[in-house]
Amino acid sequence: MLDIKWIRENAEALDQALLKRSAEPIAAKIITMDQKRREQIAKLQDAQERRNSASKEIGQALASGNRMLAEALKSEMNALKESLSEADADAKQLSIALDDELMRIPNVPLDDVPVGNNENDNVELRKFGTPPAFPFEPKEHYQLGENLGMMDFERASRISGARFTILSGSLARLERALGQFMLDLHTQEHGYKEISAPILVRDDALLGTAQLPKFTEDLFRTTDDRWLIPTAEVPLTNLVRGEIVDEESLPLRYTALTPCFRSEAGSAGRDTRGMLRQHQFWKVEMVSITSREQALDELERMTQCAEAVLKRLELPFRTIVLCTGDMGFSACKTYDLEVWLPGQNSYREISSCSLCGDFQGRRMNARYRNSNEKNTHFVHTLNGSGTAVGRCLIALMENYQQVDGSIVIPDVLRPYLGGLERIKAKS
Fold first, then answer.
1. How do strand 422-423 and strand 333-341 relate by DSSP bridges?
2. Is the bond preceding residue 213 a cis peptide, omega within 30 degrees?
3. What local confidence, expressed as pLDDT, does residue 269 receive?
4. Does domain 4-103 have CATH number 3.40.50.150?
5. What CATH topology corresponds to 119-423?
6. What pLDDT score does 427 carry?
7. Rounded distance between C-alpha atoms, residue 357 and residue 6, angstroms
8. pTM
9. What is the pLDDT at residue 321?
10. pLDDT at position 194
11. What are the domain boundaries of the chain?
12. Does 4-103 match 119-423 in CATH topology?
């Protein structure tokens, strides 16, 4: 959420930033709503002050024996009580309406973010590895998985409907190994603390990380008004919600392996084959809580941590910076990692690392304090996939496929699979 004071002082800058994000200008509307709210609060305060002074005047009138004045003042007090109640209700409604509008405004991109409308305007920064050259026509992951007899979409559909997958045997074991490998790398080498996080959260948690109110349709809600998490970013970032942390303890770095749940409401017709876009999937998430001064360096560091996963697995990928029109709602700068998928002959997103500035910290009322200062500051937050386990499995299957349909296991994963070197079809 943006600072209303900043909006008042930078109305033109806000509208220009929104235009860069292909969003409608809204500064004038926000400032008008804020002015009405402030005027109503001022009226409320004036009425409260008059009530307090009238109360004193009643006592003085009674003490001097002026009953007529005292009764007149009592009548005024009764009228003030009614008007105060209405004024207070009006002020609260104006504040709620303003907060709702503020909650729906996306973050302001940093100045160095490339301006563009969509993914075609993203900018490639670097590449790692060379896409493999196969002496045969490479298959897509779902063809490989079904031929191995370890990837079943038909049974999953009968149980749960579209966009679900059943993995079995060595493929299920490989998926589990990937998650363990990523957690070990981030905790043992990258300094993240592993968290076992809830996957059911309340409204406030999703409001804090800005999935609500804008993206309600992308979420699954339970019958008791909780939500299934779309990403572990939600519980991990909310670990500091409502708290004041010491600046000396920053940055805080958390990681978790959780199932994630997304309705994919806006993806009808996209990636309907296979398990690239699912309602339920596993992901290792990284979250950092920093000071303002640490945030930009932390984004570079987090991106390198995500890249390290793909480098260890020797998967070809590229790192891009997202343009203003393709960034997520909460982000002010985002790097995406796109892994090479031979079956599609293209790069596809496997990780997204975003700096959110104090956008989420303000929504969560999460702050930090320097020991030498009285004032507090909103924390700056970052989140990144480290990485999406299912998509990493897809990339491994397609890049390590053999002519006979078997899948070679990368060296770094073999200890997690009891030394298994290759996944072959069931005999």
1. unpaired
2. yes
3. 65
4. no
5. BirA Bifunctional Protein; domain 2 (3.30.930)
6. 46
7. 14
8. 0.92
9. 98
10. 98
11. 4-103, 119-423
12. no
Residue 277 neighbours by CB distance under 10 Å: 16
**Burial of 409 from C-beta contacts in 10 A (0-12 / 13-18 / 19+):** buried
Distance CA 366, CA 406 (A): 50
Query: How far is Cα 112 from Cα 274, in angstroms, rounded to an integer?
Result: 37
Tokens 């563009």 sit on residue = 116
pLDDT < 70: residue spans in the chain: 70-71, 73-74, 265-270, 427
Number of helices followed by number of strands (H, E) in the chain: 12, 18
How far apart are alpha carbons 236 and 220 in whole angstroms? 19
Contacts 24+ apart (CB under 8 A), 19-25: 20/109, 20/115, 20/324, 20/325, 21/106, 21/109, 21/324, 21/325, 21/327, 22/117, 22/324, 22/325, 23/106
Query: What is the reported pLDDT for 169?
Result: 96
- Give the residue numbers marked as catalytic: 262, 277, 349, 352, 391
Distance CA 171, CA 407 (A): 10
Distance CA 191, CA 252 (A): 9
User: In this structure, what token pair is assigned to residue 288?
Assistant: 């950092």
Q: In 278-403, which ranges are continuous DSSP H helix?
A: 295-312, 359-364, 389-399
pLDDT at 266: 63
Q: Give every strand in the sheet of 227-228, ordered side by side.
A: 200-201, 227-228, 220-221
Residue 282 CA to residue 7 CA, distance in Å, equals 38
